[in-house]
Amino acid sequence: xxxxxxxxxxxxxxxxxxxxxxxxxxxxxxxxxxxxxxxxxxxxxxxxxxxxxxxxxxxxxxxxxxxxxxxxxxxxxxxxxxxxxxxxxxxxxxxxxxxxxxxxxxxxxxxxxxxxxxxxxxxxxxxxxxxxxxxxxxxxxxxxxxxxxxxxxxxxxxxxxxxxxxxxxxxxxxxxxxxxxxxxxxxxxxxxxxxxxxxxxxxxxxxxxxxxxxxxxxxxxxxxxxxxxxxxxxxxxxxxxxxxxxxxxxxxxxxxxxxxxxxxxxxxxxxxxxxxxxxxxxxxxxxxxxxxxxxxxxxxxxxxxxxxxxxxxxxxxxxxxxxxxxxxxxxxxxxxxxxxxxxxxxxxxxxxxxxxxxxxxxxxxxxxxxxxxxxxxxxxxxxxxxxxxxxxxxxxxxxxxxxxxxxxxxxxxxxxxxxxxxxxxxxxxxxxxxxxxxxxxxxxxxxxxxxxxxxxxxxxxxxxxxxxxxxxxxxxxxxxxxxxxxxxxxxxxxxxxxxxxx
Length: 502
Ligand code: PFF
Known about the structure:
0% strand, transmembrane, NSS family neurotransmitter:Na+ symporter, transport, membrane
């Protein structure tokens, strides 16, 4: 007899968990820099194109798969067609791999929340972060850094506690507590950012459109990558979350609410952060473009500088900013772990606590790699490959599986329309079956070619291939092996399962 499926208490609980998953590091530190680096105001065009033709349609596709087939990624795909179960495993395992380094960034943020008291990073924020805190060394160096390891272990202990509980007691409750706090913190950061002297210059820099960027395929890749990562689609997370939703609940509305809440949040974060960057530039007497930097440096080197320069309440704003990163990240990391946990429970019928012991234990072990002195290189490499390739390839395959090989998109559309107030039309079918896969295939092809010629970040090719492609292929092999194993539970159609009380 299958065990009862976890279930959210209400639709609001589901939406909060989904928005909690979506709003994370991707919104606060990744988005502002991605906009700036990819054409400023002009980037909004590929961003909205990717959001409306790929992000929201694939989000609804995931909702419909999880809700109709009432299973984790592998179980839902298995019910769609026996041939595609591995794709659910691949996605769930990619999410699991991400959790290993995502947590280390949260560990840095937790340390910096503590360092904010009395701005303990001092005036040389770059030396502090790279040398004193990370002890940054080259590829091939594996000495653990205690300063990083301790906060990471503390956070894992907390996440372990949350994950042991059923989804509505753990994940949902976490989102119910942290999301409102996060909104308040973001409002504080944004208001502070835009009211600083020099803020207008920062916003001008952010939004001044560079239309030539639109001809660059990399800009489009960046838009798709940002939209997918930020919305948490392509990792079977939303399939899993939707499978915990009551059978009659609305899907289309929930998807639109989640998507617009997520975009609104990143928009506000970008305004606040660029306001603050304008202020720093004015204080240092340089152009805004000289103080902008990529995600890691922006958050942990430039932001501490801004906090040093603030006229008053420096520690308070430091704690608010880094605390917001921790809170936003916590509600996301649980959603990176849940797909694998749910999948293994579905496949083996094992108790939640047993599976959580394994998954959280292994993910915490993986984190040790990134908490070493060479960790920043490993983190950057794995992050790039999982997100620029793994994610986009997985999303393409989802479209191929549902629209091209099984031709079930129509059925999934009817499923959404049966339960939702807002009806979705033909546009959805066209986006899922044609526009998105075609765009993703073109972009992935171009990306592979570009990076074949110029290795990512100038890193050594053997490391890039070994770690980046190595990780993707390793989880693919694991996915195929898992597909070949027997199910201990009923994989018949969801309706039948429901009758048995599952
Ligand atoms: N959406 C999260 C962020 O913006 O940081 C990251 C994420 C969480 C991606 C969960 C994927 C996922 F399944």
